[in-house]
Amino acid sequence: MTERKGPRARLGPSPTLAVLFLLPALLLLGVWMVYPVIYSIFRSLYDATGERFVGLGNYGSIFTDSATLTTIRNNIIWVVVAPLVVTVLGLIFAVLTERIRWATAFKLVLFMPMAVSLLAAGVIFRLVYEQDPDKGVANAVLTTVHDTFSAGQGYPGARPRENDQSPAVAQQDGTVTVRQPARPGQAVLIPLVGLPPDSVKDAPPATAVAPADGVAADAIGGTVWLDVVRGGGGTVNQVDPQEKGLAGITVEAVSDGQVKATTETAADGTFHLTGLPAGSYTVRLPQSNFAAPFNGLTWLGPTLITPAIIGAYIWVWAGFAMVLIAAGLSAVPRDALEAARIDGATEWQVFRRITVPLLAPVLLVVFVTMVINVLKVFDLVFIIAPGSVQPQANVIALEMWRVSFGGGNNQGMGSALAIFLLVLVVPFMIFNIRRFRRDER
Amino acid sequence: MMRKLPIPIALLALAAVACGGNSGGNSGGEPAVGQTSASSGGGDAAAAAKPLDGVTIEVAAKWTGDEQANFEQVLKAFQDKTGATVTYASTGEDTGAFLGPRIQGNNPPDVAILPQPGLVQQYADENALKPLTPEVQAQIDQNYTPYWKELGSANGQVYGVLVKAAHKSLIWYRQQAFDDAGAQEAATWDDLVKNAQLLADSGTPPFALCGASGWTLTDLFENVYLSSAGPENYDKLSKHEIPWTDPTVTTALEKMAQIFGKKEFLLGGASGALQTDFPTCVTQVYGQKKAAMVIEADFVAGAAAQSGAKVGEDAKAMAFPKVGDTEPVVLGGDIAVALKDSKGAMALLEFLASKEGGEIWAKLPGYLSPNRNVSPDNYPNELTKQLAQTIISAGEAVRYDMSDLAPSAFGGTDGKGEWKDLQDFLRDPSDVKGAQKKLEADAAKAFKK
Q1: By C-alpha distance, which of A284, A287, A251, A256 is closest to A180?
Q2: Who among B2, B20, B180 is closest to A231 (CB)?
Q3: Do domains B52-167+331-399 and B170-329+402-448 have the same CATH topology?
Q4: Residue A339 pLDDT greater than 80, yes or no
Q5: What keywords appear on the UniProt entry (chain B) (predicted)?
Q6: What is d(CA B365, CA B303) in angstroms, rounded to the nearest whole number?
């Protein structure tokens, strides 16, 4: 260009000036973007020490190591679920808030999680998902709802002693059966343990039922009691004076697989199964007596951890999606909607056939933005998942950090993961940028 | 027909992508408080009363909360003595993750306190450590048995001072729970299981495990293994000279399964235990009074006291019972190393290795010194005095925490290696062979590097 002589042959600034203006930006991009990317590619071809060239070995182990494959699987779940839910929720919120009076206040509240850093959001949700209903809101809600419909009762945790001398034995399904079959006129003892003596300290002392005490000829008598003395001691399998009866326990007499008589224990733990023909019966306490109270879900366990973290992510980003979509919504021409309404379209039809198609470009941008964002999710997983389930909740970005700095000390492998992540993100980036460029035209 | 996007949307979308990932979990890249001027003048070093006036030293350690506050008191004593300014940086649980990038970036703290001897070797190999000066080594020779000196050395050089020891062969129990159930301190593993059954029968889950903190599980394994397999096998397994598929490991895991395998033995069952981190399990025993025992080291005392229990009365500790023929004494400890070759760093290490520094620290709760010249009389309570005595008198007979001797990818990383494999074993204690296979595979991978 310098060969060109004479008066200025073009409009606008000279190329030199343009380069001068571009230089700061190019320099920053070069230092902060281009160089790190190129160096990462270079580094990913070497092993942990950085001295031995391993070619594509690190990339190979991404797809062979089972732990890394889990991260890829989790990322796929994230990408499929999170952006879709965020976009749909954002759309619903945006459309609904358009109609209400305190829309701004409502939007403000929904947008507020964006003001919290993801790290803090993670800490909050770690508490929300706490197993103990006294601490975790999620389980507090679940147990409250559950208990409204079916109140827990009975003696969760009570069970027979685990030894051969115990007269009763627990079955696989939790039912407690008496070892020796009983005949009418006999009495059985059913000692239970596993409850703190203090939990029944107001109950009357247990009474042993003996055949001499008048068990009717057509009845099986017996006692169900807590065979534990505070401070130890007491005779095992015998009713001691300090031991308390367990009231309200359902007792069944079973013969040939059929329940022949049912009764409940009295306050002192005694029961009489009456009206039995002669024969041999198995006395049992059904599992319902010992049903454990509903304790909520194990949110932070290996199975629910990824959905739980996605829930936290949605909480943070749904407000953001709403604001974007609401902005798009305000640009939708009113006349189109009104024309449809005049033509007799229902609100659902207006939404489905007019609003959504007109909003499609915005929805797509929100969706793609979320996909990019979700691919590199890190903080929430790092904070919310307890150490013991982090392998199950792991995602590529977190694995990249773990492998390179968090103990793995293998920056070759870490760089390979970083490049892998970049390759995953780039198509969506290109898509988004092309959209913006097309829109600007 | 393509609809035009409102410009604010485009900008917001880009901004969201740009800012989404920046609030990372670790405070890794904070600017270092480097040295201002180590020794500006030349000759008149010892002229002033405070030889390190104007020197700034940065110390990084994993301690937080009370442990941090106590350590800062020790640092304050050093500052008062020397005039240096010492800043403390907490590395969080994952010391390697904090130091790694700082070392890579040529911007390490002056002094780091490493929770694992494995890291001494690793950083020594990376040439990140500075050898101790003769003055510091003189303090070590005077105050420590050779075993401890060995632990702080790598490749024939002495790099570290063991500044804090942890006695890991203890089982803490709640006196009230034992009284209620009529349980006793156990001398053997079978006794322990029997007592656990007694507690469970009386309605108190015997153990609160901190399964979410993997290191508590490795500590338990080490005690069981040291006792059942003996010190020689312990050393071999530490160095991975025998595989984790060895029958001695099978025995140890089977013993552990006697506890792990019973739902009523663990507070909240295995899944509850796996979500409980340290020190929540201590709170469960002494604060919420939900369980009877917690298997962890001497530092439980601090957390127990915080839950409102009186150490020595409500909260008592028993020696880890004998599983086999050996009475297990497993120790952990933190090793201070210099990452910068500065006068301040060496002076601080010398102070920490000295009798003087050790005794200041010893008067604070939750600290146990491996320094043999720190008189046990300094400790604030009877229990610590006894523990200090056992460490000093045991000398060469004790073993160091095995997982801390292993490469950190195997023995010291959340969600990886031994931590993860033992957590998986807690989840499914019936699969001893499977657990061994996974342990061996992970160990092989980590030791190969």
Answers
A1: A284
A2: B180
A3: yes
A4: yes
A5: Signal, Transport
A6: 11
Flag if A194 and B201 touch (Cβ within 8 Å).
yes
For the segment(s) B170-329+402-448, the CATH number from 3.40.190.10, 2.60.40.10, 1.10.260.40, 1.10.1520.10 is: 3.40.190.10
Cβ contact B28–A388 (<8 Å): no
Cβ-based neighbours of A339, under 8 Å, separated by 6 or more: none
Query: Do residue A365 and residue B10 have CB atoms under 8 angstroms apart?
Result: yes
CA-based nearest residue in chain B for residue A327: B9
pLDDT of residue B225: 95
Distance of residue A238 Cα from the nearest chain B Cα, in angstroms = 15
Instruction: Tell me the whole-structure pTM to 2 decimals.
Output: 0.76
User: Closest approach of chain A CAs to the CA of B52, in angstroms?
Assistant: 34
**Contact list, A57 vs chain B (CB under 8 Å):** none
Closest Cα partner for A414 from A398, A429, A427? Answer: A398
Predicted complex ipTM: 0.75
Helix-then-strand count for chain B, H and E: 20, 11
Summarised one tens digit per residue, pLDDT across range B64-77 is 888 899 999 999 99
Contact A320 B97 (CB under 8 A): no
**pLDDT tens column, A269-323:** 888 888 888 888 889 998 888 877 787 888 988 889 999 999 999 999 999 999 9
**Is the CB of residue A391 less than 8 Å away from at least one CB of chain B?**
yes
User: Which ranges of B298-431 would DSSP assign to H, the alpha helix?
Assistant: 300-306, 343-353, 355-362, 382-394, 402-405, 408-411, 417-427
* Residue of A236, A243, A388 to mutate for B, most B C-beta atoms under 10 A: A388
Min distance A196 CA to chain B CA atoms (Å): 4
CA-to-CA distance for B233 and B212, rounded, in angstroms? 28
CA distance B285 to B149: 37
Name the 3-class secondary structure at A25: helix
Each domain of chain B, given as residue ranges in start order, spans 52-167+331-399, 170-329+402-448
Options 1.20.1440.20, 1.10.3720.10, 3.40.1190.20, 3.40.980.20; CATH of A65-142+299-409: 1.10.3720.10
Q: Say what the pLDDT of residue B20 is.
A: 42
- The arrangement of secondary structure in B52-167+331-399, i.e. its CATH architecture, is 3-Layer(aba) Sandwich (3.40)
What SS3 state is found at B337? strand
Write out the E strands in A144-289: 168-170, 176-178, 187-192, 220-226, 250-255, 258-264, 270-273, 282-285
Assigned architecture for domain A168-290: Sandwich (2.60)
Contacts A406 to B, Cβ<8 Å: 94, 96-97, 413-414
